[in-house]
Amino acid sequence: MQDDDKLSPDLVWQPDGHLTDIALTALGDGEEAILPAGAAAHVARCLTCSSALGRTALLSLRAGEMLRARAASSGASEPAAPRAPLPVPAIAFA
Ligand SMILES: [Zn+2]
């Protein structure tokens, strides 16, 4: 087993034995492959961590929605122009 692609234990476990926000975020994002064995099992039986995971997943979901909405609204215009200096269609009809 190679652990190079896993988070180091001090990034995963808090001193009190629960998972860190980093580990919970990784779990919420479905990246449990980078977590050491036992992290997902701990969340499954720990009420503190599972409720924290629920909050983290919700935040992650909202952040994802915000980013998608932002990408959709900015992607509608030309990529080279962050904002249109003049309302060109309005001028064309005037
Ligand atoms: Zn816990």
Shape by Cα distribution: elongated
Number of domains: 1
Summed up, the helix count is 5
Largest sheet features: none
**Bound ions, cofactors and other small molecules, one mention each:** zinc ion
Class based on secondary structure composition and strand pairing: mainly alpha
In whole angstroms, the N-to-C terminal distance is 70 Å
The overall strand count is: 0
What is the share of helical residues?
Answer: 55-70%
- Provide mean pLDDT, rounded: 83
Rg, alpha carbons: 21 Å
Report low-confidence residues grouped into runs of 5 or more: none
Query: What is the helix/strand order?
Result: HHHHH
Question: Strand fraction band?
Answer: under 5%
Question: Summarize this, please?
Answer:
By secondary structure, the chain is mainly α.
Keywords:
binds zinc ion; mainly alpha; 94 residues
